[in-house]
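Methods — Computational structure assignment.
A single polypeptide chain was analysed. Its primary sequence is given first, followed by the predicted tertiary structure written as structure tokens.
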Amino acid sequence: MIKVEQQDNITVIRLYRPPANAINIEFCCQLEDAIKSEIDSESKAMVLTGQGSIFSAGVDLVQLLNEGAGYTGQFLLSLEQLIETLFFCPKPVVAAINGHAIAGGCVIANCADHRLMALDSGKIGVPEIRVGVPFPVVIMELMRSKVDAGSFEEIVLGGATYTAQAALTKGLIDEAVSAEILMQTALARAQLLSEISPELYSFSKRQVRQPVRAAIIARNKLHRDDINSIWQSSRTREAIRNYMEKTFKNPGD
């Protein structure tokens, strides 16, 4: 599910769960383990990317429905742990978004310190509200911190997905480049960040993201139980089924 390769002092972590790099518990655990291993390694920075025309199409909704409410609770915990590990990773992280980055895929990409997306490669966005599920607190606060303030409500409440060019104007990505130079450019950005003192980079990143951590702690106390309850409810499961049926019937939507 996760492939790791070395490019000089940069580690490339490739999401690899064909066909769509759908996110399940095993995926979360493997990616989190890969990130933790790199934190403790000699690697100076990381580049996250996908495979083929997909970065990640988001949560494996089929497995979510098939496994039941108990699995959903465990999945949410695994997802939240992954996102916190990645977002607060002390080393530089660059996302090379090679294709569709939907829902959880968009969230993983937005954990990165710098986000590049290949032009004409697919769409990016967080359509959770259209799927019928609420954002876990960690994801809501991460997205609030990363996208343009003027676009935040539109992105979250509209649930739309965007081309790379449109995503650039919303703050969902930092650069849109041709597919041919995506990895080359991502590695160059990672190399540039890696030249900063590791101790200084880690300390500064911790300072920059501390308000997000504080917001997660505070708002989890208020909303965590309600969010978990909604995700595990029969009404939500029905909403997910309806979304999947509509998406399958109208793949162009």
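Note: Strands lie at 2-7, 10-15, 45-49, 54-56, 93-97, 100-102, 114-118, 124-125, 161-162, 175-177.
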